[in-house]
Each structure stands twice: as structure tokens, then as C-alpha cells.
Specification:
This protein has 362 residues and is of the alpha/beta class. It has 11 helices and 14 strands. Strands 2-1-3-4-5-11 form a 6-stranded parallel sheet, with helices on both faces. A 6-stranded mixed sheet has the order 7-6-8-9-10-12, with helices on both faces. A two-stranded antiparallel ribbon has the order 13-14. Strand 3, helix 4 and strand 4 form a beta-alpha-beta unit. Helix 7 packs parallel to helix 8. The longest helix has 26 residues.
């Protein structure tokens, strides 16, 4: 091959390489496609609603840099794997899977789409292209407990609970500990509905708790049914994940709310910039990932004062809701006075604190 032919071949090779790269360069100018998988309907209250508000906040902050899509009411299990895989196959390069039961399906799909970033909410498994994130909503549960402990007349509180996983057990215990911090004789009754979103079951559970003497209710479920039942029966309750006051303004004392917008925005920015790294993200009152909605005017001044003092202490890092002494139901000391429950134990919590009645379902 002479010199002229070599130059011609080299030029053709360069043109072919440029042609191959051009689609990649064009894609770099396109918006980042971001997918969300929701366990419940978006609706206008609760866990899924809060995540969707975060999605919308990200869209507002990043504008044309992102293009989002979501799939709602996806059951945990095989159906979720199909939905997650479809989102990845459709070109979404950042996918948020927003329920604990999506953990294993997310991990499985992540391994087959190594160039896509997957973020799983409330789980504990991660990988090179899979991270986890979680709000410290137990801080809000503790603050709800402070108000409940001040306002209860029966000294019996109730919790409408979803599934017996550490996240929910943490919130039940934190609610009880917060109440006991201002009213040591508090007892907490729990009814498990085995669903994140089932208004009929939630209402039935709330009505049963009220019939058993609970006059202040908390919940770890998504609908406002617990609040509505409380208002109808003339007792108090708290919103959860989002402000639910419009559904039961007389009963709604405050709500521990999730605020995902800033986190979703910063994660998308990192993926766009190519600086994203796998890891665990947890945020609470200090980080603004957890916020408390306004207090109902029905909250007495002494209860409001105790609430604000504890909120300030938690936000400043001067107090932790799982700060000892903490005992389990048998009276055994689990956390010594002045000590804080280790994160590993907090994340795998599988026992009730003293004052919570019944047992955790297997």
C-alpha cells in the first residue's frame, strides 16, 4: 500500500469514527431521562405524593436539563422488576425506586444496566450503579409523640402501621419515646394493616384503636383515612409524609413530612455532571429532608413549647430520639443513659420499646 492509499484509508477511518461518535455527542445535549417507581397512587397526600412533589421540584429547578416519567401504584415484587426494567430499557439513565419492597428487584435490574444509575429508597443494598437514600422520619415521629403525650387524656395512643419492617418499627418506637418524655405513663397500641395504601383498612384500624381507648393516633400509611376517622370520633391524629390538614382540620395536630426536592435535584445534577458516586444518603430535620407542618391552634402552649424545644435540639444535633435510657418491653436496658443507639441497630430495629403493647408480626 503506497503513502497516498494510506492517507485515504486513514481519512475514511477517521470519518467512520466521527460518524459513530456523532449520536453520542448529540445525546449529550439531550435532557437526562429520569424515571420514578411509586408504590401508591400520586393522589394528594402521603408517601407517594411527597415523592412526586420532589420530582416536580426537580423539574422546576433543572428545567430542560431533565425529562421525567413515573409509574404509580406498582406492587412490590415481580411487577416492580418488570416496571424498573422497562424504564431502564426506555433510556432512563437515573431511576428512583421509592419503596422498601423494590430493593431486590432494583438490585437485579441494576446489574443488567450498568450505565444507568439506580437510587432505592429506605433499603440497605447498594452497588457500583445503585445507591440508597432515606429520610430520618423517626425524628418527626418523636415530635408527634411529644405533642401526643401532652394532649392525651387516656394515656393511650394508637398507631396504624403498614408493614413490620425496621423503618416502621423505628417510627412506632420513636412516637412512644417522644410521648413518654413528657408523660411517662404512656401506652401505645398498634394495628398492622399490611398495606401502604388501603383507606378502608386504615379507617377500620383507626376506629378499632379509638374503641380501645386511644385518643391520639399516629400512622405509617399513606391515606388520610386515619385522620378522617379521628375527626369523626372527636379525637386527634397526625398527618404522615405530607401535610394532611385539609382532610381533617380539627383533628390534624401537625405532620412529619418528607421533602425530597433538593435531594432529587442534586442527584440529577451529579449524574448530568458525571460526578455521581454510589453511597447511602440519610437526612432529617437538620438537612431539611424532614419538615414539620404548622401546629394546629388546638395544641396547648405548653405542648407547643416542648415540641419546639425538642425540634430545635434535634435539628442542632444536641439530642437524638433514640438516646438512652431505652428499655425493651421486658424492661431490659437496650441503650444506656446518655448513649445513642448505634446506626446499625437503628436500621435493623426489631423490637418494641417499653410501653408499646403487643408483639411485632413475624
Amino acid at each position: 500500500m503506497n503513502r497516498r492509499k494510506l492517507i485515504t484509508v486513514a481519512a475514511l477511518a477517521a470519518l467512520a469514527a466521527a460518524t459513530t461518535l456523532m449520536p453520542e455527542l448529540a445525546r449529550a445535549d439531550e435532557p437526562l431521562k429520569v424515571g420514578f417507581v411509586y408504590v401508591g397512587p400520586v393522589g394528594d397526600a402521603g408517601w407517594t405524593y411527597a415523592h412526586d412533589q420532589g420530582r416536580l421540584a426537580m423539574e422546576k429547578a433543572l428545567g430542560a436539563k431533565v425529562k421525567t416519567t413515573f409509574v404509580e401504584s406498582v406492587p412490590e415484587g415481580a411487577d416492580s422488576e418488570r416496571v424498573i426494567r422497562k424504564l431502564a430499557a426506555d433510556g432512563n439513565k437515573l431511576i428512583f425506586t421509592t419503596s422498601f419492597g423494590y430493593m431486590n428487584p432494583t438490585e437485579k435490574v441494576a446489574k443488567t444496566f450498568p450505565k444507568t444509575v439506580f437510587m432505592h429508597a429506605t433499603g440497605f443494598k447498594s452497588g457500583k450503579n445503585m445507591g440508597t437514600y432515606e429520610s430520618q422520619l423517626y425524628e418527626g415521629a418523636y415530635l408527634n409523640g411529644v405533642i401526643a403525650g401532652k394532649m392525651t387524656k387516656s394515656k393511650t395512643l394508637g398507631v396504624v402501621a403498614s408493614f413490620p419492617i425496621p423503618e416502621v418499627v423505628r417510627n412506632i418506637n420513636a412516637f412512644t419515646l417522644g410521648a413518654q418524655s413528657v408523660n411517662p405513663g404512656i401506652k401505645t397500641k398498634v394495628i398492622w394493616v399490611n398495606s401502604w395504601y388501603d383507606p378502608a383498612k386504615e379507617r377500620q384500624a383507626a376506629e378499632t384503636l379509638i374503641a380501645q381507648g386511644a385518643d391520639v393516633l399516629n400512622q405509617n400509611t399513606d391515606s388520610p383515612a386515619t385522620l378522617q376517622a379521628a375527626q369523626e370520633k372527636g379525637v386527634y391524629a397526625f398527618g404522615w409524609d405530607s401535610d394532611m390538614s385539609k382532610f381533617a382540620p380539627k383533628a390534624h395536630l401537625t405532620a412529619a413530612t418528607n421533602n425530597w426536592g433538593e435531594y432529587y435535584t442534586e442527584t440529577a445534577k451529579a449524574v448530568i455532571a458525571g460526578s455521581w458516586k454510589s453511597g447511602e444518603t440519610r437526612g432529617g430535620l437538620k438537612e431539611g429532608m424532614v419538615k414539620m407542618s404548622p401546629l394546629n391552634a388546638a395544641v396547648p402552649a405548653d405542648a407547643a413549647k416542648a415540641f419546639e424545644e425538642k425540634k430545635a435540639a434535634i435539628t442542632a444535633g444536641k439530642f437524638h430520639p433514640f438516646q438512652g435510657p431505652i428499655k425493651d418491653q421486658s424492661g431490659a436496658v437496650k441503650v444506656a443513659a446518655g448513649a445513642v443507639m448505634p446506626l446499625k441497630e437503628l436500621l435493623s430495629l426489631n423490637y418494641y420499646v417499653q410501653g408499646v403493647e403487643g408483639s411485632i408480626p413475624k
